[in-house]
Amino acid sequence: MQTIAVAAISARAMAEAAANDGFKVVALDLFGDADTRRAASRWLPIGTPGSLQIDAASTLAALRRLAEEGEGGDAVMGWIAGSGFEGEPGLLEQGAAVLPLIGTTPHAVRRVRDPASFFGFLRTRVMPYPQVLLEPPEDPTGWLMKDAHGCGGWHVRHAPWSVEEPLSSHHYFQREVPGRPMSATFIANGGDVHVLGFNEMTVRRFGARPFVFCGAVGPVPVPENMAMRVTEIARALAAEFELRGLCSIDFMRDDDAIGVLEVNPRPPASMSLYRRPAGAPGLMHAHLRACLHGELPAVPAHAHAQDVEGIEILFARRSIQLDTAVARQLAEWPGIRDIPCAGQRFDIDDPVCTLTASGTSANEVRARLGESRERLLQSLETSA
Question: What are the ATP-grasp domain coordinates in residue numbering (predicted)?
Fold first, then answer.
């Protein structure tokens, strides 16, 4: 049995996918949730939960530990970097020097998450995207300020009237546009892509943060011409930026028009929405084959029917300290993932867990997620 390591702010989805594909898994993340530990043979912390940021020193120490232990015979073949690493190309480089990185290279991550490089390519190829400025607009009305090294939408703000400190090269300003935020989940081999499907993303306001990622529903149908256009864009981006493995492209949909927002050059949260087609490799096997051998899944995209799946992150509405009874209640909640352990504390707006649901339509799934979210929040407020 081959051993792989998966690392992210939350590594549960990757750990479960790898375990389901028959790998022995070492999970590195911030939370150490009960189901993450259940899927993995070992868990190593790489940051504190409330920070929502990966700690570089802890990550490198964990990778060195795995590399050194592998010298004794139980070798980890490599590690897969997930959420939180898209803004850390330097850390990816250091980690890859310790243990092989299975995914998009650090150099490619740096290029695709550089606003000048990414949007410059889109502009040259006449691909649609909301207007972007690399300097603050004279009138910030209708503009958003973003950090290309951020994830989950926590970095998005309405553009301020004045910027007091010099901005880094990974900050930029983007025109706010109407429409529904969507994504396409795909597997890339550095030149071509296999699109697994399209997803509707759920975003909500949290204080001064207007577009925090809260979940996704998919696969959802889109017009054939839109599917072809997004696939063409993903293919061009994969070739230009040498994307490898599981990735996603975020875009805005306004009727039949689209506007590209960004590419996640690593396994996205939406991977949880996709089941293994009959006779096809699982997602982690497909990721490894694309990264190591340049192979894409042979099953045609959209060839298998499945229910619509949904995920929703539940955020604390007030401070919560989980005692044993409440932790047990959470563990028994229908469709729950990222199950926290007893003793964990959550401040307001901290992610507590993830809810899942399935159905025959996106609206049905969203309704089930909303009902489950409100019932669980009410339960936590009365018992925690």
Answer: 219-292
